[in-house]
Task: inverse folding
């Protein structure tokens, strides 16, 4: 028995070790894959809880997902848990939303997007003669792009342009050189339907006019697979992934901000947390890429300030988490307010950064579906206005925009809600910086424009420091929760290869 314990101890000592910085979805995914490969993994998160952008806010009996609220691409989550011989439903419960969402275009003028494609086609036909058939063929093309992109291309590490070259991508070459905006407008004329078809690519962080038409696979994610709600919210997905990782032996440490990555002889050998040195064979960071490089002495950084300043970042956001003392009428779980032209707002986000005059906004009322979010008879509302990263976000500015969205909500949905606001909490650019160490307070990373896709994105592996890796929304494949899971997988494969396991 004594000998057996000694051998176990020795084997444990010989185990390769990995430190993971941050506990967002990409870190959680990579933690699970590395542990499965036999690596001793420790995750260090600066905040009080895990989940990164998907933090949960609890207040006066209300709950709010602070970041992501749309659960799209269920196949990516199934594939993740499937890699461990497990099923999604062992970790959290999913509900398909029907209607998936509602889009307002004017006072009491809105379109409901159903949970089934056939019904969406009928809606399109009702709004524009002939648009139903056009939508059907558009979604068919989107589905075939989805099969190529999400089932294959996005799982490539972005090391070489050759990863993108195949017979299938060659056939679709023109789709990389025209925008999704042009491709939608060539088929659909009704401005409301155009806005609906341009909405999904906003998740990729750039303007539809700057996003290649190939990315219409997001439309298949939207209309083909549909929108799901994980019961108790997106944080429950992060918790599920953490539970899986813990079962595999991963250790989690919160309130543990990494202050420095230690490099010796050109190799990452550990980190400093609370002035204490912690060593490992490999360091992987899921924190924002730019911030991670600040944890290195400048000769070890791959990308200069100039490099980052020239990149197209996904927007930041002004968010409000609001507890209402009554149920809100005429809105769905996900409701988009597209009653003003997007072009002007997009200019303020991407071209000449400024607070928008007439912002589009999004609202989520998860308590419509899930009683976890609000006490009985009350409603939890999350409001999001996309804005340019780096803007000043004073308290008066936030108040001004709260008034704007409440006025618009009241007039578009024809009801009084202001007197029912029990509390509101806001979150904006400076909070993204202080809570997540986010570059210029970006909300969801580096946009997926053509020249910020795959091989053109910041690398998963440092070229200047051995055994240092990166994952998450600023590297491959891009912004969003499903891409974060994929990023965690592909970086783990690189690490496992390096450690020859
Ligand atoms: C408001 C908002 C709405 C969104 N909506 C959606 C949506 O509906 N659907 C969707 O799919 N995606 C959505 N996204 C995008 C999605 O949430 C992100 O792309 C994804 O969660 C990013 O995961 P990540 O692992 O890359 O990084 P993060 O979640 O940012 O995780 C990085 C972690 O690193 C930690 N960290 C930073 N510095 C340090 C340090 N020095 N030491 C230790 N830890 C550190 C941070 O605290 C954080 O926990 C949204 C994002 C936001 C902000």
Result:
């Amino acid at each position: 028995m004594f000998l057996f314990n000694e051998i176990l101890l020795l084997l444990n000592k010989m185990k390769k070790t990995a430190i993971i910085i941050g506990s967002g979805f990409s870190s959680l995914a990579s933690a699970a894959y590395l542990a499965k490969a036999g690596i001793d993994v420790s995750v260090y998160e600066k905040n009080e809880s895990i989940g990164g952008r998907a933090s949960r806010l609890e207040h006066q009996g209300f709950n709010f997902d602070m970041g992501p609220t749309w659960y799209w691409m269920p196949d990516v989550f199934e594939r993740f848990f499937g890699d461990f011989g497990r099923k999604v439903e062992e970790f959290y419960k999913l509900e398909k939303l029907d209607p998936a969402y509602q889009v307002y275009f004017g006072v009491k003028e809105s379109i409901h997007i159903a949970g089934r494609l056939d019904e969406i086609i009928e809606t399109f036909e009702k709004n524009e003669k002939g648009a139903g058939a056009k939508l059907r063929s558009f979604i068919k093309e989107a589905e075939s792009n989805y099969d190529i992109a999400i089932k294959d291309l996005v799982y490539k590490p972005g090391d070489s342009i050759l990863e993108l070259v195949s017979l299938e991508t060659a056939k679709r070459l023109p789709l990389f050189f025209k925008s999704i905006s042009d491709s939608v407008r060539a088929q659909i004329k009704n401005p409301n339907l155009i806005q609906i078809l341009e909405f999904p690519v906003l998740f990729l962080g750039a303007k539809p006019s700057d996003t290649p038409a190939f990315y219409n696979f997001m439309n298949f994610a939207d209309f083909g697979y549909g929108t799901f709600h994980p019961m108790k919210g997106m944080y429950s997905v992060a918790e599920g992934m953490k539970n899986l990782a813990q079962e595999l032996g991963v250790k989690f440490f919160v309130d543990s901000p990494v202050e420095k990555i230690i490099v010796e002889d050109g190799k990452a050998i550990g980190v400093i947390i609370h002035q204490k040195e912690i060593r490992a064979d490999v360091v992987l960071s899921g924190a924002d890429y730019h911030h991670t490089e600040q944890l290195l002495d400048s000769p070890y950084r791959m990308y200069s300030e100039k490099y980052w300043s020239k990149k197209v970042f996904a927007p930041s956001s002004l968010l409000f988490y609001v507890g209402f003392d009554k149920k809100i009428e005429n809105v769905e779980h996900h409701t988009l307010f597209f009653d003003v032209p997007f072009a002007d707002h997009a200019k303020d986000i991407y071209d000449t950064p400024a607070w928008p005059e007439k912002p589009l906004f999004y609202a989520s009322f998860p308590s419509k579906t899930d009683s976890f979010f609000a006490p009985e008879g009350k409603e939890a509302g999350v409001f999001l206005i996309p804005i340019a990263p780096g803007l000043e976000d004073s308290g008066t500015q936030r108040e001004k925009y709260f008034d704007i969205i409440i006025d618009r909500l009241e007039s578009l949905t024809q009801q009084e809600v202001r007197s029912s606001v029990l509390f509101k909490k806001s979150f904006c650019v400076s909070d993204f910086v202080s809570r997540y160490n986010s570059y210029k307070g970006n909300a969801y990373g580096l946009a997926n424009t053509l020249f910020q896709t795959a091989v053109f994105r910041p690398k998963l592996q440092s070229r200047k420091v051995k055994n240092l890796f990166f994952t998450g929304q600023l590297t491959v494949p891009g912004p969003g929760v499903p891409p974060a899971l994929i990023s965690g997988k592909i970086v783990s494969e690189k690490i496992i290869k390096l450690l020859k396991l």
Observations:
- Residues 65 and 233 are 6 Å apart (CA to CA).
- The domain at 116-224 is CATH 1.10.405 (Guanine Nucleotide Dissociation Inhibitor; domain 1).
- The pocket of flavin-adenine dinucleotide is lined by residues 21-27, 44-47, 52-54, 67-70, 257-258, 286-287, 291, 317, 319, 384, 436-437, 443-445, 472-473, 479-481, 484 (CB under 6 Å).
- The chain has a mean pLDDT of 96.
